Amino acid sequence: MPSFASAAEVLQVREADLLLIGDQNRTYSVRLACAEIQPGKEKAAIDFLRKTLPRRQRVNLMPIGSEEGLLLARVRALGSDSDLTTLLVEQKLATISPTCENKTS
Predict the structure, then answer these.
(1) pLDDT tens-digit profile of 37-53?
(2) Most exposed of 53, 68, 75, 86 (fewest Cβ within 10 Å)?
(3) Looking at residue 93, what is its pLDDT?
(4) pTM across the whole model
(5) How would DSSP label each residue in 27-65?
(6) CA dist list (Å): 75 to 2, 3, 81
Protein backbone atom coordinates (compact mmCIF):
# COMPACT_ATOMS: atom_id res chain seq x y z
CA MET A 1 0.00 0.00 0.00
CA PRO A 2 1.55 3.37 -0.96
CA SER A 3 2.21 5.87 1.79
CA PHE A 4 1.03 9.44 1.47
CA ALA A 5 3.36 12.34 2.20
CA SER A 6 2.01 15.01 4.49
CA ALA A 7 2.63 18.69 3.95
CA ALA A 8 5.41 20.45 5.79
CA GLU A 9 4.37 22.53 8.80
CA VAL A 10 5.66 25.77 10.25
CA LEU A 11 7.26 25.10 13.62
CA GLN A 12 8.72 28.56 14.28
CA VAL A 13 9.37 31.96 12.73
CA ARG A 14 13.02 32.43 13.68
CA GLU A 15 13.90 35.65 11.86
CA ALA A 16 12.24 38.04 9.43
CA ASP A 17 13.12 35.72 6.54
CA LEU A 18 13.93 32.42 8.30
CA LEU A 19 11.46 29.70 9.23
CA LEU A 20 11.79 26.37 10.99
CA ILE A 21 9.73 23.91 8.96
CA GLY A 22 9.05 20.30 9.83
CA ASP A 23 7.53 17.21 8.32
CA GLN A 24 7.04 13.81 9.87
CA ASN A 25 10.73 12.91 9.56
CA ARG A 26 12.88 16.01 10.00
CA THR A 27 13.09 19.75 10.47
CA TYR A 28 14.52 22.31 8.07
CA SER A 29 15.70 25.87 8.44
CA VAL A 30 14.26 27.59 5.39
CA ARG A 31 15.25 31.07 4.25
CA LEU A 32 12.61 32.86 2.19
CA ALA A 33 13.92 33.03 -1.35
CA CYS A 34 14.24 36.43 -2.97
CA ALA A 35 13.13 38.41 0.09
CA GLU A 36 15.27 41.34 1.12
CA ILE A 37 13.78 42.66 4.36
CA GLN A 38 13.65 46.46 4.58
CA PRO A 39 16.09 47.87 7.15
CA GLY A 40 14.31 48.66 10.40
CA LYS A 41 11.27 46.55 9.51
CA GLU A 42 12.55 43.22 10.79
CA LYS A 43 10.24 43.12 13.82
CA ALA A 44 7.21 44.07 11.73
CA ALA A 45 8.13 41.34 9.23
CA ILE A 46 8.43 38.76 12.03
CA ASP A 47 5.06 39.85 13.46
CA PHE A 48 3.47 39.64 10.00
CA LEU A 49 4.87 36.15 9.39
CA ARG A 50 3.72 34.93 12.81
CA LYS A 51 0.22 36.24 12.11
CA THR A 52 0.16 34.80 8.59
CA LEU A 53 1.77 31.49 9.58
CA PRO A 54 0.55 30.31 12.94
CA ARG A 55 2.36 27.32 14.42
CA ARG A 56 1.52 24.10 12.56
CA GLN A 57 0.30 25.99 9.47
CA ARG A 58 0.83 23.67 6.52
CA VAL A 59 2.94 25.06 3.70
CA ASN A 60 4.25 24.17 0.28
CA LEU A 61 7.98 24.62 -0.25
CA MET A 62 9.28 25.51 -3.71
CA PRO A 63 13.07 25.17 -3.34
CA ILE A 64 15.30 27.29 -5.54
CA GLY A 65 18.69 26.46 -4.01
CA SER A 66 20.70 26.72 -0.84
CA GLU A 67 22.90 29.29 0.82
CA GLU A 68 25.21 28.83 3.80
CA GLY A 69 23.64 25.44 4.56
CA LEU A 70 20.07 26.78 4.53
CA LEU A 71 17.39 25.78 2.07
CA LEU A 72 16.24 28.75 -0.04
CA ALA A 73 12.62 28.36 -1.03
CA ARG A 74 9.48 30.15 -1.97
CA VAL A 75 7.01 29.27 0.79
CA ARG A 76 3.26 29.31 0.29
CA ALA A 77 0.66 28.56 2.96
CA LEU A 78 -1.74 25.87 1.78
CA GLY A 79 -4.81 27.56 0.38
CA SER A 80 -2.98 30.80 -0.39
CA ASP A 81 -2.41 32.13 -3.91
CA SER A 82 0.76 34.06 -2.95
CA ASP A 83 4.08 33.04 -1.50
CA LEU A 84 5.43 34.76 1.60
CA THR A 85 8.00 36.84 -0.26
CA THR A 86 5.24 38.35 -2.40
CA LEU A 87 3.14 39.03 0.70
CA LEU A 88 6.07 40.73 2.47
CA VAL A 89 6.67 42.91 -0.60
CA GLU A 90 2.96 43.83 -0.76
CA GLN A 91 3.14 44.87 2.92
CA LYS A 92 6.21 47.01 2.10
CA LEU A 93 8.30 44.99 4.56
CA ALA A 94 10.62 43.57 1.90
CA THR A 95 11.80 43.99 -1.66
CA ILE A 96 12.71 41.39 -4.23
CA SER A 97 16.45 40.84 -4.04
CA PRO A 98 18.35 41.90 -7.19
CA THR A 99 19.56 38.34 -7.83
CA CYS A 100 15.94 37.17 -8.10
CA GLU A 101 14.30 39.95 -10.07
CA ASN A 102 14.32 37.91 -13.30
CA LYS A 103 13.26 34.68 -11.58
CA THR A 104 9.98 35.79 -10.01
CA SER A 105 7.00 34.02 -11.46
Answers:
(1) 999 999 999 999 999 99
(2) 68
(3) 97
(4) 0.85
(5) EEEEEETTEEEPTT-HHHHHHHHHHHS-TT-EEEEEEEE
(6) 27, 24, 11
